[in-house]
Structure prediction request, 76 residues.
Amino acid sequence: MGFGGISIWQLLIVLAIVILIFGTKRLKNLGGDVGGAIKSFKNAMNEDDKKEPESLEKKDAADANFSEVKDEEKTK
Prediction:
């Protein structure tokens, strides 16, 4: 038994049909495109993780300024 009741033979038949329909060259290009997309996604996630502490500091500073403005409004 394979994935969810699908045997290895059924997967091989589906793979063979996909290769016949699209050809190996197109599948190779598709694999490269998917790999490039995943790599770009990972790079973007890493950049966001590096930028996050700076943005949190700015957000904290903005929150502090906002509370000061609220205090000034209360005194008026």
User: Anything to note?
Assistant: The mean pLDDT is 76.
